[in-house]
């Protein structure tokens, strides 16, 4: 039938399409590592530099799943990830205490900054205390944009409110986006609100934002990254060897050197400060 | 406004220089959504035709389910499929989470009801006497179905375009089951979301434009096939 002949080239094209879909990375399961990490580490572009180095060196295929720290740890707690790179120290400590994570090691840090509109209605510019800034913002009932998504940044923000003995949830000046850092910054910029952000994302988006750094430098604003392996005795399907290899890679001197230099040529300042092997209490002093 | 122009310039630049990462992402979008649309056609058209032409108890419920399926939220599909495919989930032994294959499965689940629903409506629209005429000419059951499908090919091609359009543009399921992994499961939609969240608006707009061009090109071919006049 002529219609069948007309259909033949289409069928051949589609068959070729299906054949091409065969994965180019047919790596066996032991060679795959699921890395659950935060959106801020992915957005900074650091992982785009580090992962290829690791893959080339070890032959592992790293599946980087960038979600918030909260979701990353939830994945780890279910054994759905092999290794975690997070920046939510209190939640991480609970994670390790619960037996879900092992070998938690310090990797690097940068800091959070409190951003706001140039008009600065709460008058926090130049303050050295993050808690004082938050108190003034609450006192002035100035618009504040929160991520509200259980990410590391969100956890730090909530802990600051708690330390300042303020309960912002439900008040009309306190808004929650449930979005990633970049998008939350955009919304905060549009609405001329205060917002807590990691310095790296701010630097990356500075050109398009109408926000300035108003408060920085307080030790309470340190943003600390740890790497943890998911406990293989809780979840036997975890790629323990791969997780260990990746975690060792993150704290190795060569990688720490790459972290130190990252971002300097693009932003004029490093985005992260390498800290492997240090005692976390010595940071920021 | 300036940002949109910058995005257009960037799109033209990426296309003209055949930027390898963007080409890879575009090809993967086409592969994943193309295969998903194909599978949903192969399953959807027969099921839709069968539902249209047959009568059985519970048919109303089946039709209702298909019509509801057309409005399935992609992100919910993605969530359910990722729970099934989790390592420790019921289908975890397949090791399919965060792969393009998983994305194809999710997109097929999204597209198939669309194809089924439109096929159902298209076949029901055919003149009732036509079936009797064909049978009277001595056609077998299978030939009847084939001829009716050909008669309804205009709306059926619309079903293909609707199915393809629905999945090439979806992002929720693709992120959840694919993981947006660079060079592996990143497609145009997921890359656009990522670039937006990074604040690279020009790149995001450029990727959006490339996606629109891709969809237009595919639909140009399908529309040509659809609108072609039959030789008398």
Overview of this structure, please?
The complex is a heterodimer of chains A (285) and B (232). Chain A folds into two domains: 29-110 and 222-278, Periplasmic binding protein-like II (D-Maltodextrin-Binding Protein, domain 2), CATH 3.40.190; 111-221, D-Maltodextrin-Binding Protein, domain 2 (3-Layer(aba) Sandwich). Helix content of chain A is 43%, strand content 21%. Chain A is built from twelve helices and ten strands. Chain A has helices spanning 2-20, 39-44, 46-58, 69-77, 89-97, 130-140, 152-163, 181-191, 199-205, 240-251, 253-261, 264-267, and strands spanning 32-37, 61-66, 83-86, 101-117, 144-146, 174-176, 194-198, 211-215, 222-230, 273-274. In chain A, strand 5, helix 7 and strand 6 form a beta-alpha-beta unit. Chain B has helices at residues 2-16, 20-53, 59-69, 74-85, 100-124, 128-136, 141-151, 153-168, 172-178, 188-198, 201-227. In chain B, helix 6 (128-136) crosses helix 7. Chain B starts with a helix and ends in a 5-residue tail after the last helix. Helix content of chain B is 77%, strand content 0%. Chain B has eleven helices and no strands. The A-B interface holds A 3, 14, 17-18, 20-21, 23, 25, 29, 34, 39, 42-43, 45, 48, 51, 61, 63-66, 78-80, 179-183, 185-186, 201, 204-205, 208, 235, 237 and B 30-32, 34-35, 38, 86-88, 92, 95, 97-101, 104, 150, 179-182, 184, 194, 196-199, 201.
The CATH class of the largest domain in chain A = Alpha Beta
- Helix and strand content put the structural class of chain B at mainly alpha
List the domain count of chain B as a whole number. 1
CATH structural architecture of the largest domain in chain A: 3-Layer(aba) Sandwich
- Name the beta content range of chain B: under 5%
Q: How many strands in all of chain A?
A: 10
Percent range for helical residues of chain A? 40-55%
Distance between the termini of chain A: 82 Å
- The gross shape of chain A turns out to be globular
Detail the poorly predicted runs of chain B.
none
Count of alpha and pi helical runs of chain A: 12
Query: In terms of quaternary structure, what is this?
Result: heterodimer
Mean pLDDT over the residues of chain A: 88
What would the CATH topology of chain B be? MetI-like fold
Largest sheet of chain A: 10 strands, mixed
What is the H level of CATH, i.e. the homologous superfamily of chain B? MetI-like
Count of helix runs of chain B = 11
Task: Determine the N-to-C terminus distance of chain B.
Answer: 51 Å
Instruction: Please write the string of helix (H) and strand (E) elements of chain A.
Output: HEHHEHEHEHEHEHEHEEHHHE
């Amino acid at each position: 039938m002529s219609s069948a002949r007309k259909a033949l080239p289409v069928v051949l094209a589609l068959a070729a399409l299906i054949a091409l879909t065969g994965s180019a990375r047919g790596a066996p399961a032991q060679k795959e590592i699921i890395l659950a990490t935060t959106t801020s580490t992915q957005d900074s572009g650091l992982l785009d530099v580090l992962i290829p180095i690791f893959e080339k060196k070890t032959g592992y295929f790293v599946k980087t799943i960038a979600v918030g720290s909260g979701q990353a740890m939830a994945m780890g707690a279910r054994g759905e990830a092999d290794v975690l790179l997070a920046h939510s120290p209190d939640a991480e400590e609970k994670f390790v205490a619960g037996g879900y994570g092992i070998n938690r090691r310090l990797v690097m840090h940068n800091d959070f900054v409190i951003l706001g509109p140039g008009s600065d209605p709460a008058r926090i510019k130049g303050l050295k205390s993050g808690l004082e800034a938050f108190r003034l913002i609450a006192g002035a009932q100035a618009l504040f944009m929160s991520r509200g998504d259980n990410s590391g940044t969100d956890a730090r923000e909530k802990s600051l409110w708690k330390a300042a003995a303020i309960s912002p949830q439900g008040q009309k000046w306190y808004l929650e986006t449930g979005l990633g850092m970049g998008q939350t910054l955009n919304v905060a910029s549009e609405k001329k609100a205060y917002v807590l952000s990691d310095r790296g994302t701010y630097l990356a988006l500075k050109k398009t934002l109408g926000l300035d750094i108003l408060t920085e430098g307080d030790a309470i604003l340190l943003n600390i990254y740890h790497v943890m392996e998911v406990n293989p005795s809780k979840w036997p399907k975890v790629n323990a060897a791969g997780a260990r290899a990746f975690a060792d890679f993150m704290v190795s001197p060569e990688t720490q050197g790459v972290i130190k230099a990252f971002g300097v040529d693009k932003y004029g300042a490093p985005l992260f400060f390498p800290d492997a092997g240090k005692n976390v209490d010595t940071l920021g002093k | 406004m300036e940002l949109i122009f910058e995005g257009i310039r960037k799109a033209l630049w990426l296309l003209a220089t055949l930027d390898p990462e963007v080409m890879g992402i575009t090809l993967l979008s086409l592969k994943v959504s193309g295969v998903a649309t194909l599978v949903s056609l192969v399953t959807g058209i027969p099921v839709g035709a069968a539902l249209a032409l047959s009568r059985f108890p519970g048919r109303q419920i089946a039709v209702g389910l298909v019509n509801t399926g057309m409005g399935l939220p992609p992100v919910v599909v993605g969530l359910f499929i990722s729970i099934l495919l989790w390592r420790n989930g019921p289908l975890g032994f397949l090791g399919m989470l965060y792969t393009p294959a998983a994305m194809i499965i999710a997109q097929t689940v999204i597209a198939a009801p669309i194809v089924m629903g439109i096929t159902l409506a298209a076949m029901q629209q055919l003149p009732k006497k036509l079936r009797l005429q064909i049978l009277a000419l001595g056609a077998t059951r299978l030939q009847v179905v084939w001829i009716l499908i050909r008669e309804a090919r205009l709306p059926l091609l619309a079903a293909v375009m609707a199915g393809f359009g629905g999945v090439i543009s979806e992002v929720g399921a693709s992120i959840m089951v694919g993981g947006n992994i660079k060079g592996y499961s990143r497609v145009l939609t997921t890359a656009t979301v990522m670039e937006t969240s990074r604040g690279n608006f020009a790149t995001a707009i450029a990727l959006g434009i490339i996606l629109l061009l891709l969809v237009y090109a595919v639909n140009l071919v399908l529309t040509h096939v659809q609108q072609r006049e039959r030789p008398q």
